[in-house]
Amino acid sequence: MTQRPRFHLAFPVHDLAAARAFYGELLGCPEGRSSPEWVDFDLYGHQIVAHLVPGKAAAPSDDHNPVDGHEVPVPHFGLILAWDDWTALADRLRDGGQTFVIEPYVRFKGQVGEQGTMFLYDPSGNALEFKAFRDESLIFAK
């Protein structure tokens, strides 16, 4: 199998210690390089970088879109995980006391595009979605 390209995402945070606790400890992302202004994390093989933005409000955006009866935060980022990894992450987050914007559930049940999904905010108000498909060939199915 050909390895997929890795993505890189830089995002603003109000507190690097809080970012380290959330991404490093709660999500289990190994930390890479860092400086007093940013921290690299390994998010399942992808490079995400928390950049300290002084004065950033630790609040989520008010923007949402209705999807499958839920108000999905926009913008958001995340990953499509293998089903077992998704359920393990959901358990880890619940066990860690994480509050969800949208609790883990199966969206579009019985339809093309059926997927497990969950949404949460990091301590700086950045929205994340983690999802999984039982059949990854349906990720882009119409």
TrEMBL record:
What CDD domains does UniProt report for this protein, alphabetically? VOC_like
Q: What's a Pfam family in this record?
A: Glyoxalase
Look up the domain of life of the source.
Answer: Bacteria
Positions of the VOC domain:
5-133
InterPro entries noted in UniProt: Glyas_Bleomycin-R_OHBP_Dase, Glyas_Fos-R_dOase_dom, VOC_core
Q: What is this protein called?
A: VOC domain-containing protein
